[in-house]
């Protein structure tokens, strides 16, 4: 099948199909009476089906992004856990709500592999885009809203930069943000329960992905402003209390588990160090937010260049049209513009603050940029906004056509035979519920072997990498090893299959860990330069 879909004739067919459908959508936007029997709602549904079909055809059951392996490992661990709640909270790298869809699938008996994870991700994208369309069509014509949701579908259907396209926490992060914005803008009943619920929803964002906090603050402040303007003063403290409630509830939970240190270390301290120090990136604050770095970040892949030029160029063109033709703007219109601008700036801040050019961070720019484009369209009015949409639409379509034509299959990792051999040996020496710990950065072994994590992280990078949090991580690692007593310990610290492999990171270089492994485990198999240790029989008999 892979040979067929990546063959030139099929790639040309997929490009022609997307271009043809794009032309239909464009005609719908420009001439509202075009093909009246085909409603905009039907076009939206068919666009989603086309999106799903293309991603299904090109989806591969191989690791596209190491983070996807992390979330698959979390999901299967939760699915096999005796205490799913504790496992979800502690074995999700501080992002429990982001991996709930995968964990739920595992809990329901669906084995999550890379293809299933991609399907779940595409369905979540469709849900997010549908909510976004419902939001936009209240302020712009539904045909224009259709164009705005079609632009990211074009990109996500054709991009083969796998760090950008594969399942990651940004998928749920965007869904949570868009659902929150929809709730804030579309519902005008500012009762105390509504304020509490909206505050609680936004307060959950750190547990979807800590990176969403700046955007959540913008939406929270916007909600507070709307309450203030509506003279709903009693709802303001309720909104704030609702936002603090998730942290309070989890604090009480961890206190009840006598493990508050883990809550602080796993959810907050580590992300503070990651985002606001130079321990994981040598870039200074100025370098992270400099215009040169922003341009390099946006245009690091030729598969994205014309998309960003089209979207941000359309924003600049729309702003120029609005300034050139000054029109009366209502208070609500001004509010939507300023919240859109603040949301976009907060999203840029969130993607740049850590100083790492991971392409999947750019997914947080998709919706605020489209929202600002929609607001400017609303302000410029019809037919002026046709110029904006023609400019953006044409460039994004060209980008999608280039991506579809030059689309390449995911290269097979040179260590794939070793991955398979090690995974087969893990399966041979263990049962489905036996814990596994991998020393190194080889998260895919959990998914390949279908074994749960014996340590709360799917890799030991945080343990061996020298940062200010290393003492805490090492203590946590040894505590998890003793609590879970995983059956197998695999030393995969080899550059053939592990990221960031280095001799200085060998577990023997950490005396406390070496002592524990020597006492509790014995070497049972060496496959090339990967060593598999099993818990000693006398130790197993104590369990």
Automatic annotation (TrEMBL):
Identify the keywords attached in UniProt to this record, alphabetized: Membrane, Transmembrane, Transmembrane helix
Q: Is this entry keyworded rRNA processing?
A: no
- Transmembrane stretches in the record are 6-26, 38-58, 114-132, 144-162, 174-202, 233-255, 305-323, 335-352, 358-376, 388-406
Tell me the protein's name.
Answer: Dolichyl-phosphate-mannose-protein mannosyltransferase
């Amino acid at each position: 099948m892979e040979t067929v879909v990546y063959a030139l004739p099929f790639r040309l067919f997929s490009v022609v199909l997307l271009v043809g459908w794009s032309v239909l959508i464009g005609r719908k936007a420009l001439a509202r009476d075009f093909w009246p029997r085909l409603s905009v709602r039907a076009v939206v549904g068919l666009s989603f089906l086309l999106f799903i079909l293309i991603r299904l055809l090109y989806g591969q059951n191989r690791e596209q992004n190491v983070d996807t392996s992390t979330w698959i490992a979390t999901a299967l661990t939760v699915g096999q856990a005796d205490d799913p709640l504790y496992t979800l909270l502690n074995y999700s790298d501080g992002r429990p709500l982001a991996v709930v869809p995968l964990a739920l699938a595992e809990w329901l008996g669906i084995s999550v592999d890379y293809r299933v994870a991609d399907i779940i991700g595409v369905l979540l994208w469709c849900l997010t885009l549908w909510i976004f369309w419902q939001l936009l069509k209240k302020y712009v014509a539904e045909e224009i809203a259709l164009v705005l949701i079609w632009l990211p579908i074009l990109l996500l259907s054709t991009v083969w930069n796998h760090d950008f396209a594969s399942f990651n926490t940004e998928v749920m992060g965007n869904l949570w943000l868009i659902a929150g914005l929809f709730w804030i803008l579309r519902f005008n009943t500012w009762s105390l329960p509504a304020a509490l619920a909206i505050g609680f929803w936004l307060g959950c964002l750190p547990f979807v992905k800590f990176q969403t906090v700046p955007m959540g603050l913008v939406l929270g402040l916007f909600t507070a402003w709307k309450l203030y303007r509506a003279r709903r003063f009693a709802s303001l403290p309720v909104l704030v209390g609702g936002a603090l409630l998730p942290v309070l509830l989890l604090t009480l939970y961890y206190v009840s588990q006598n493990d508050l240190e883990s809550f602080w270390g796993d959810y907050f301290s580590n992300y503070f160090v990651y985002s606001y120090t130079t321990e994981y990136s040598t870039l200074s604050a100025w370098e992270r937010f400099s215009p040169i770095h922003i341009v390099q970040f946006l245009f690091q892949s030729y598969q994205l260049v014309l998309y960003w030029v089209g979207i941000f160029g359309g924003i600049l063109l729309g702003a120029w049209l609005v300034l050139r033709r000054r029109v009366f703007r209502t208070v609500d219109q001004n509010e939507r513009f300023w919240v859109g601008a603040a949301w976009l700036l907060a999203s840029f801040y969130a993607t740049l603050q850590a100083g790492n050019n991971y392409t999947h961070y750019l997914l947080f720019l998709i919706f605020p940029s489209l929202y600002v484009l929609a607001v400017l369209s609303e302000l410029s009015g019809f037919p002026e906004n046709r110029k904006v949409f023609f400019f953006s639409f044409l460039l994004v379509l060209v980008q999608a056509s280039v991506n579809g034509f030059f689309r390449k299959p995911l290269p097979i990792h040179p260590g794939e035979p070793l991955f398979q051999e090690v995974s087969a040996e893990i399966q041979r020496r263990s049962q489905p519920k036996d814990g596994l710990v991998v020393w190194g950065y080889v998260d895919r072994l959990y998914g390949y072997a279908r074994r749960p994590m014996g340590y709360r992280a799917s890799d030991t990078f945080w343990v061996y990498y020298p940062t200010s949090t290393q003492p805490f991580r090492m203590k946590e690692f040894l505590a998890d090893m003793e609590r879970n007593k995983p059956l197998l310990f695999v030393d995969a610290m080899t550059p053939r299959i592990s990221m960031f492999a280095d001799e200085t990171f060998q577990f023997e270089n950490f005396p406390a860990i070496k002592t524990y492994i020597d006492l509790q485990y014995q070497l049972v198999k060496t496959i090339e330069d990967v060593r598999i240790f099993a818990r000693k029989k006398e130790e197993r008999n104590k369990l």
